[in-house]
Amino acid sequence: MKSMTLYRAAMVVAAAALIPACTWVKIPDDARAVAIVEASAVGNCKRLGSVSTNVAWKVAGIERGENKIRVELDNLARERAFGMGGNTLVRESIRDGSGEYSAYACP
């Protein structure tokens, strides 16, 4: 009985250690082509609007890696910008699992 409880506890700890490394956001290939650039690069572009994204930044009380969060937020923003007819994004901010972007159509 004790060995089964210990086994279950070990499995929970192992799962909690692996979850922060997961990337859950997958996007269509067309949306991957949306570029993320600095604000100085969109001078000749038409602003289409704002894009807000959110992902879990903590799982089971454990903070996920900043890079994983940024990649997921960027991917969601790319998909939304593509849906708006955009091909370029400017990342305005990322904080606590939320991202703010501006979407543009550039020549």
Mind explaining what this structure looks like?
- The chain starts with a helix and ends with a strand.
- The protein has a single domain, classed as Translation Initiation Factor IF3.
- With 107 residues, it is an alpha+beta fold.
- The longest helix has 18 residues, at 66-83.
- It has helices spanning 2-18, 29-32, 66-83, and strands spanning 35-37, 46-54, 58-59, 62-63, 88-95, 98-105.
- 21% of the residues are buried.
List the helices and strands and how they pair.
Blueprint: H1 2-18, H2 29-32, E1 35-37, E2 46-54, E3 58-59, E4 62-63, H3 66-83, E5 88-95, E6 98-105
Parallel strand pairs: 1-5
Antiparallel strand pairs: 2-6, 3-4, 5-6
- The helicity comes to 25-40%
Radius of gyration: 18 Å
Beta-strand content estimate: 25-35%
Oligomer: single chain
Strand order of the largest sheet: 1-5-6-2
Give the H and E element order. Answer: HHEEEEHEE
Q: According to CATH, what is the class? A: Alpha Beta
Structural class: alpha+beta
Number of helices: 3
Low-pLDDT segments: 10-23
Shape: elongated
Largest sheet descriptor: 4 strands, mixed
Query: Ends: how far apart?
Result: 67 Å
Question: What's the architecture in CATH terms?
Answer: 2-Layer Sandwich
Indicate the mean pLDDT.
83
Structurally, how many domains make up the residues? Answer: 1
